[in-house]
Amino acid sequence: MKALIDELAAKKRLSREDWVSLIAGRSAGDERYAAGLAREISEGLFGKRVFFRGIIEFTNYCKNDCLYCGLRRSACGTARYRLGQDEILSCCREGYALGYRTFVLQGGEDPFFTDERLCRIVRGVKALFPDTAVTLSVGERSRDSYQRLFDAGADRYLLRHETASKEHYEKLHPAEMSFANRMRCLQELRDIGYQTGCGMMVGSPFQTAENLAQDMEFICGFRPQMIGIGPFRPHHDTPFRDRPDGSSALTIFLMSLCRIMQPRVLLPATTALDCGADDGRTKAILAGANVIMPNLSPTGIRKNYLLYDGKPGLGQDAAASLASLRAQVEAIGYEMVVGRGDYKA
Ligand code: SAH
Ligand code: SF4
After folding, report:
1. In ligand 2, which atom is closest to the CA atom of 162?
2. Distance (Å) from CA 333 to ligand 2 centroid
3. C or N: which end of the chain has fewer Cβ atoms within 10 Å?
């Protein structure tokens, strides 16, 4: 399989068949080989440095019912909350003092946050902290809404495509949600001018090697500025509660292949990698990841923002979350850099 990894490095693309054989036929040696190559590429471009972004989980209300997610509207055990503008700004103030220069505002699809309310929040953050970037991760909205939020100052948008197969998408979502709409959103975000992030869960129910090959082909064609890939983890209050965890090793392998395919991409070591382990994120950094997203949410609400079970850092406050990740990053010889960390073509 090393020959295929070399071919990817040279041509920046592979055929569907080759993706499938690489994904399904990989050995631990192939994983190490890809990680080494990816690490060389990221160190060559970024040095031993990772960007850190503060994630503020500002609402866990969601009108959607994605079958995998602990925030789905049918998850009755989830106590719902939303943060007010002042609370969000105070998270940013605390984050700014800690060195954050990107704030990621993430939440369920909560109709309370109309364009007007969300634009006011984005403008509020940018007015107080003009040298920061604002990333939104609030799901599917209309083109007009994305445009307004962009005009209010939002810089980036994370919207994982979740799976690039329409058939697979339909097994993970209720009939009222559509693959076509997800794709429409991603295209529009890019067209408007956001630095756009797509990505998928690895090991989600019904996923095949062919599906992951489709994901890699989609990423290859879409050329996102950011790619968020994390393992699927079951949540006890969802129909997928008894499904097994996605593989961290496969997740990290695919991240390495993304780095090899799109050398400059912003590639976070996702939190789900540290579920049940505490070295998943650092392994990912050593395999090509260059972004880490510590939690900036108020401590009291963290236990209610559970996309999956076993999320780490629930009892920590913002300073402790950053300090523990910083220590881990420094222990592997990397440093966290203060700065917006924009995508550079
Ligand atoms: N509502 C927004 C943002 C919050 S969900 C949206 O859906 O885009 C953010 C991401 O969490 C999703 O894109 C999904 O990939 C991930 N996620 C949700 N449930 C998960 C689970 N059970 N295991 C792993 N990742 C999950
Ligand atoms: Fe809502 Fe996002 Fe969870 Fe789907 S993945 S239920 S849209 S929070």
Report:
1. 5
2. 35
3. C
- Ligand positioned closest to the Cα atom of 308: 1
Q: 230-231 and 201-202: which strand pairing? A: parallel
pLDDT tens per residue, the chain (345 residues)?
A: 899 999 999 999 999 999 999 999 999 999 999 999 999 999 999 999 999 999 999 999 999 999 999 999 999 999 999 999 999 999 999 999 999 999 999 999 999 999 999 999 999 999 999 999 999 999 999 999 999 999 999 999 999 999 999 999 999 999 999 999 999 999 999 999 999 999 999 999 999 999 999 999 999 999 999 999 999 999 999 999 999 999 999 999 999 999 999 999 999 999 999 987 779 999 999 999 999 999 999 999 999 999 999 998 898 899 998 999 999 999 999 999 989 999 998
Of 115, 154, 116, the C-alpha closest to 132 is 154
Residue nearest to atom 4 of ligand 2 (CA): 66
Beta strands per DSSP E along 160-238 = 195-198, 201-202, 226-227, 230-231
Residue 97 amino acid letter? A
Give nearest CA residue, ligand 1 atom 8: 139
Distance CA 338, CA 1 (A): 38
> pTM (2 decimals)?
0.97
- Our CA dihedral for 59, 183, 290, 253, rounded to 10 degrees, sits at 110
Rounded to the nearest angstrom, the distance between the alpha carbon of 37 and the centre of ligand 2 is: 34
Fill in the DSSP letter of residue 312.
Answer: S
Rg (CA), the chain: 19
Centroid of ligand 2 to alpha carbon of 109 (angstroms): 7
Report whether residue 109 contacts ligand 2, using a CB cutoff of 6 Å. Answer: yes
Whether 137 lines ligand 2, by a CB cut-off of 6 Å, is no
Q: Considering every ligand atom, which ligand is closest to the CA of 78?
A: 2
